[in-house]
Design brief:
Distance between the termini: 67 Å
Organism: Paenimyroides baculatum
Largest sheet: 4 strands, antiparallel
Strand order of the largest sheet: 3-2-5-6
Helix content: 25-40%
Radius of gyration: 18 Å
Number of helices: 4
Keywords: Signal
Strand content: 25-35%
Number of strands: 7
Oligomer: single chain
Shape: globular
Structural class: alpha+beta
CATH class: Mainly Beta
Protein name: Lipoprotein
Number of domains: 1
Order of helices and strands: HEEEEEHHEHE
CATH topology: Immunoglobulin-like
Amino acid sequence: MIKYLKFLMLFICMTFLYGCPNIDDAKYKFKIRNQSTDSIYFYQAENFDYFPEYLNSGFIIAPNNQVPSATNFSYGKIYVWIFDKNVIDNNVFKDVINNDMYLKRYELTLDDLQRMNWQVVYDED
């Protein structure tokens, strides 16, 4: 009986450790660049209907900096939202989304990303 319990625990551990997707698993890789003078938050999704409860510091891009990102284009498009850091830091994220309090929203196809040289660039203009 103990032998089977050990096997079950090993199987559960392996499942949890393997279950998190990695940027290296995605088919298409690109960069999100912040060419503004202020830090921004970004959020990217393939499904327009899902938003997290909040954005943590992993979603911040410093001025004149970039972050790697990736997608599989499972639904044919990706969406990228750019938010003012002060807005995210001082509001409930659900309210930010419900009131369209974003600086810019990109709706991109694979062709769009190729034309953009695999970079989504935000500037203040």
